[in-house]
């Protein structure tokens, strides 16, 4: 198993990416992609602190960050892309100059998009509600529709409390999600695992839950997850380019296979902040977003900042400017984040290349918490 020390040795030998002649301190460009732009100072964010953060990224204090975008009051106020190594863990040590047209692996941010698709399918009447039994949708797997597994609901999948034994280790080799996607039938692989707990009782991180949610989309709508997400989320947001990884057997990787441009990730963040509405059209039901942001299970009992799990979103109460604010994030392996703070009308997007290195990928959140949150000025007005 590759360790943190091996990857840090790689960065030591190769060095951190050198900057080019790009000016990293200009406001974002106003394009015709549906995002409105402004400046940091106009939305109550201390630009000097964000400049200092930019310099930390450029100097390698934050390792292998590929992009950082900040949005407030529906405006994109900071946007930068940084040269970085693509995926040293898997041997891709190429140095690439990321830019606004670069598509990036979202990894488990994908899970939050799948959750939104379930909410849309329920609003369309294709799925009745979250309390429906999951195995009713899979008569081909009737042999698993016995005992306590019969009680597994869509809500249990959304909150990762199915009770099915699952382990996603800190490396690709020990990750059960990878084993599922190497199988001939990912949904059957998921249901074939032993039951470790009563459904709905205990949280356990599981890409199998998300893969099964996407299979329910296919069962109820007749559309693959990429086509459904494109029709009902991406196209309405003006997202014209995306990619969704498939296995060699043609299964979409639904727990982590989506690729998007950083600006398009930002659009999804804004959609969440706007209660699911875009250009006066309701894309995701507002109540679904509220339900998605609820604290269903304590995932990580940190005494200072306990983290909870919603409907495929991470949730926590964080002190920002001496006030407790609810923070919600879609997060993915390697340091991918779409983070929103509804009360502050803030969204932040980070992409990075620190896959399977937990101590490095955690820096994407630290980057936000230690630099962006303290940059908020009290008493700022909307602009």
In short:
The protein is α+β, with helices and mostly antiparallel strands. The protein has helices at residues 4-14, 47-58, 109-123, 154-158, 176-182, 186-192, 207-221, 225-234, 262-273, 286-292, 358-361, 363-372; strands at 36-37, 65-72, 75-81, 83-87, 92-97, 103-105, 243-244, 258-261, 277-278, 281-282, 297-300, 307-309, 314-320, 323-332, 336-341, 346-352. Strand 13 (314-320) and strand 14 form a beta hairpin.
Can you put this structure into words, describing what you see?
- The chain is of the alpha+beta class.
- The chain has twelve helices and 16 strands.
- The strands form four sheets. It has a nine-stranded mixed beta sheet with strand order 1-3-2-16-15-14-13-12-11. Strands 6-8-7 form a three-stranded antiparallel beta sheet. Strands 4-5 form a two-stranded antiparallel ribbon.
- Helix 3 runs parallel beside helix 7 and helix 6 crosses helix 7.
Q: Classify the secondary structure makeup into a structural class.
A: alpha+beta
Alpha-carbon Rg, integer: 20 Å
- Stretches where pLDDT is under 50 for at least 5 consecutive residues are 1-6
What's the β-strand tally? 16
């Amino acid at each position: 198993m590759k360790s943190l020390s091996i990857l840090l040795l790689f960065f030591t030998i190769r060095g951190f990416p050198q900057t080019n002649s790009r000016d990293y301190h200009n406001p974002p460009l106003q394009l015709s992609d549906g995002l409105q732009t402004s400046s940091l100072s106009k939305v109550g964010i201390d630009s000097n602190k964000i400049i200092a953060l930019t310099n930390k990224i450029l100097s390698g204090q934050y390792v292998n960050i590929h992009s950082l975008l900040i949005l407030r009051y529906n405006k994109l106020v900071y946007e930068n892309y940084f040269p970085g190594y693509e995926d040293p863990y898997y041997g891709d040590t190429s140095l690439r100059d990321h830019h606004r047209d670069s598509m990036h692996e979202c990894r488990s941010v994908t899970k939050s998009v799948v959750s939104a698709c379930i909410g849309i399918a329920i609003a369309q009447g294709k799925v009745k509600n979250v309390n429906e039994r999951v195995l009713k949708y899979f008569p081909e797997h009737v042999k698993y529709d016995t005992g306590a597994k019969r009680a597994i609901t869509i809500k249990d999948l959304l909150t990762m409390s199915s009770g099915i034994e699952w382990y996603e280790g800190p490396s690709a080799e020990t990750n059960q999600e990878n084993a599922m996607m190497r199988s001939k039938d990912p949904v059957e692989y998921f249901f074939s695992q032993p039951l470790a707990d009563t459904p709905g009782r205990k949280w356990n991180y599981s890409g199998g839950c998300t893969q099964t949610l996407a299979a329910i989309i296919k069962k109820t709508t007749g559309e693959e997850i990429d086509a459904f997400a494109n029709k009902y989320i991406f196209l309405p947001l003006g997202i014209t380019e995306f990619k969704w990884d498939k296995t060699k057997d043609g299964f979409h990787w639904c727990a982590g296979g989506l690729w998007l441009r950083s600006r398009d990730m930002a659009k999804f963040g804004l959609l969440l902040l706007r209660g699911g509405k875009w250009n006066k059209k309701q894309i995701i039901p507002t109540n679904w977003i509220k339900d998605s942001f609820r604290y269903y299970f304590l995932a990580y009992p940190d005494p200072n900042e306990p983290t909870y799990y919603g409907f495929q979103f991470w949730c926590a109460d964080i002190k920002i400017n001496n006030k407790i604010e609810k923070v919600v994030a879609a997060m993915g392996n390697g340091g991918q984040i779409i983070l929103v703070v509804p009360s502050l009308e803030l969204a932040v997007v980070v992409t990075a290349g620190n896959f399977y290195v937990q101590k490095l990928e955690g820096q994407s959140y630290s980057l936000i918490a230690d630099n962006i949150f303290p940059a908020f000025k009290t008493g700022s007005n909307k602009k």
